[in-house]
Prior knowledge:
The complex is a heterodimer of chains A (314) and B (309). In chain A, 76% of the residues lie in helices and 0% in strands. Chain A is mostly helical. Chain B is elongated. The model of chain B is unreliable at 1-27 (pLDDT under 50). The chains are: A mainly alpha (314), B mainly alpha (309). The interface between A and B is large, with 72 and 55 residues.
Amino acid sequence: MxxxxxxxxxxxxxVVFGVTVIVFVIVHLLxxxxxxxxxxxxxxxxxxxxxxxxGYNHPLYIQYGDYVGHLVQGxxxxxxxxxxPVLTLLERNLPKSALLxxxxxxxxxxxAIPVGMLQALRRNKPIDYVLxxxxxxxxxxxxxWLGLLLIEIFAVQLHLFPPEGPQGATVGxxxxxxxxxxxxxxxxxxxxxxxxxxxxRSAAIENLVQDYVRTARGKGxxxxxxxxxxxxxxxxxxxxxxxxxxxxVTISGAVVTESVFNYPGMGLLFWTSATTHDFPVMLxxxxxxxxxxxxxxxxxxxxxAVADPRVRxx
Amino acid sequence: MLVGTSGAPGGELPPEAxxxxxxxxxxxxxxxxLILGVFVQNRLAVLGLGLVVFMVLFSFVGPHLYVxxxxxTNLGQVTQRPSGAHPLGTDQLGYDVLGRLMVGGQxxxxxxxxxxxxxxxxxxxxxxxxxxxxKWVDAVMMRIVDSFLAIPPLLLIxxxxxxxxxxxxxxxxxxxxxxxxxxxxxxxxxxxxxxxxDYVQAAIAGGxxxxxxxxxxxxxxxxGTIVVLTTFSVADSILLLAALSYxxxxxxxxxxxxxxxxxxxxxxxxxxxxxxxxxxxICIVLxxxxxxxxxxxxxxxxxxxxxxx
Lengths: 314, 309
């Protein structure tokens, strides 16, 4: 167990290191690079001053060393467009994105687990087909279009919720507009439910044919007891892994959701940075999210190994 | 990685699912016969294939039958409601929406298919080499895949798109750069198990070169996985292109695709121009659903042990 955890931690460190190399290469080796933000008509003297000021005249390995050196000190760089340290921007916007993603995950789990179980228990019955069809459509829907549809139906036609996300500067301020949170959270949650319920269905179907379920039946356990006591618990194990692994997909969804609903989180900031070539912001957020993803999957793997001893020996 | 613990269990397979041949003789021909069998017997797969054929005809043949000007704007007739002259109305620049859907479908389908194919080739080669080599080569190659996978796909693609000029060929490369990862991982897993089989050991003992073993034994054995993943990958690539274009980092106008047609969607929603919201979105959903149906049926039929969606 200890050896397994140590091996996974070592792998995770290598992966984080790999992420820093990837983002560094993207910005520095592609044509344009960081200079692109100066625009096409800038004079050579200004370009030169910019290159010297940012150390772009040094060899790449020195630049990379500086970059990683700053990174481990918590210095994520300085935003060109916002004229603020990236860390400050992250501190202000990341919690709001975390709130959005966290709420979406919570609702998605609350819905996907019972839906997947129901589908497994009613496999190949009409209700299963309907729900499977629904999850197919949910999975195939572009996030931004789903957001637009929800705005069209619930904000423009029915006037139930505001069309724009909460505009507060802090998480506390965001929470004062709970009705404005409904549509962005719903958009992200629907996407996640479509993903999770498929896994839950497969996991539950697989467990239904296991010997322990038959044993429980043979001992005269009620259907209710089998479902909650045996099936649910065992089927939740793959969901633990899925929680960690689906984070990149959900973050991608959050970027689009935030831009549709003008929700002032990290995703919206990332998108504006991408359109204005504000690389330090993009790099900072990417590295932070990648570390979160690696940590998430590390924790998921360790929990999985705790929950299911078979994993450790494979 | 969105690859679950184990694939479709025996009980879940539809009755029409056919058993996969042993593949000991590198039976790629058997796989294609099986694929044909899927389309004959699985209704959803037929529906999916029908939708794909319809979308291809609609996008590539349609513009020859329904001729519209999708290059020059026509500011004299912007955002007109659907009428006899314009069955789906016109957009904010006066383009005919039905005609634009057709032209937009071309780049959406081209990018989706090309990116998925490219990603499969790269991913297969990477995974096969990694799994077959084992040891430190495998470790290094897989950590590279893990590093890419740790970055949310949309962040990576937005970063890349903000650096390059987004033309169709460039976007194919950019999207492929993100989609090869899943293929690489799964092919690597399959290669690991193929490597230990007796006939591979026999080939090694017989003096076959590594490259020959990879192409002759490893890849034919994982072709099912590759076909299934490529199908899903087309769906994902179309969605990625749509998201990128919606966010304004897709091909520049007058080039059109279904995603870019929805860029100003919020404005249309507020003024009630439904014909500028629904058609393009429905086209994306139908095409993506179609590829997912096909992929799902292929996965069941080929008994590919992956649990994706």
